[in-house]
Amino acid sequence: MRNKLGKTFTYLVLAAVTVVILFPLLFILMNSFKGKFFISKQPFDLPVGNLFVGLENYSNGLLKTGLLQAAGWSFFITVVSAGLLILFTSMTAYYLTRVKTAWTSALYFLFVFSMVVPFQMVMFTMVDLAEKLHLRNPLGMCILYLGFGAGLCVFMFAGFVKSIPKEIEEAAMIDGCNPLQNFARVVFPVLRPTAVTVAILQVMWIWNDYLLPYLVIGVSTPYKTIPVVIQMLVGTNGNKDMGALMAMLVLSILPIILFYMACQKYIIEGVVAGAVKG
């Protein structure tokens, strides 16, 4: 009886959490098919009858924002940044874990410390530095994301590397592998679950990020990302096309939702694999 009550309570809690999570998504989807004036007056009504405008909001939003071009730049920045993070932070974590010196220990704790530093503390200095180093472009954005995401990635990779037996690497070195070949052929394939987890987390963060692209790239360049062009639908005087805004939000979150659903099984696998003592 207690087990049944416990399971029932668990299901009720999970159902409530599911509703809380899905309601904002369903709210945006529902209002993306309404006329912009009805969204403010009748936000919770279904888009039927006079409220339904079909795909008008989507076509207006695409014309006003240039979302397709922004999606291309968002895709480029996201893929390149995630690739750089996986490559360089995995190598860094491998070195910091295997080479035990005071310098590597201090460097590791600096990476961990960077995870708790609020972005607002460094954003103005970062913008000034990006201007001086000519990083206010898509490639520069990838370098900046590499710096801001390195802390979490190194922390996750280091936790997994500690679980890899050193005997495997020693056997590869006996067979003639140098340290770089040892990492590429032996260590990195074993790191695959954590690499996939890191990729998922970083892709979700970079794709949805608004503040960093807005500060670095701005709104007056052709390199605007999806969050920046969507924000442009809000006028300087507070005027906004709510219908187009809702429609563009649906288009912006749809790719990342599909990506997450396709890869979500690797998140728990990678996190659990990296949760080792060391």
What percent strand?
A: under 5%
CA-based gyration radius: 23 Å
Which overall shape is indicated by the principal axes computed on the Cα atoms?
A: globular
> How helix-rich are the residues, as a percent range?
over 70%
Average residue-wise pLDDT:
87
SSE order, one letter for each helix or strand: HHHHHHHHHHHHHH
CATH topology title: MetI-like fold
Low-confidence stretches: 274-278
Instruction: Indicate how many domains the architecture comprises.
Output: 1
CATH architecture, by name, is Orthogonal Bundle
**Largest sheet features:** none
Overall number of strands: 0
Task: Spell out the blueprint of helices and strands.
Elements: H1 2-31, H2 36-41, H3 56-65, H4 67-98, H5 102-114, H6 123-132, H7 138-161, H8 166-174, H9 179-190, H10 192-208, H11 211-216, H12 226-231, H13 242-263, H14 265-274
Helix pairs in contact: 1-13, 3-13, 4-5, 4-7, 4-10, 5-7, 7-10, 7-14, 8-9, 10-13, 10-14
List descriptors.
74% helix, 278 residues, MetI-like fold, disordered C terminus, single chain, 14 helices, mainly alpha, globular
Structure description:
- With 278 residues, the protein is mainly alpha-helical.
- The chain has one domain: MetI-like (MetI-like fold, Orthogonal Bundle).
- Helices cover 74% and strands 0% of the residues.
- It has 14 helices and no strands.
- It has helices at 2-31, 36-41, 56-65, 67-98, 102-114, 123-132, 138-161, 166-174, 179-190, 192-208, 211-216, 226-231, 242-263, 265-274.
- The chain is globular, with a radius of gyration of 23 Å.
- The two termini are 42 Å apart.
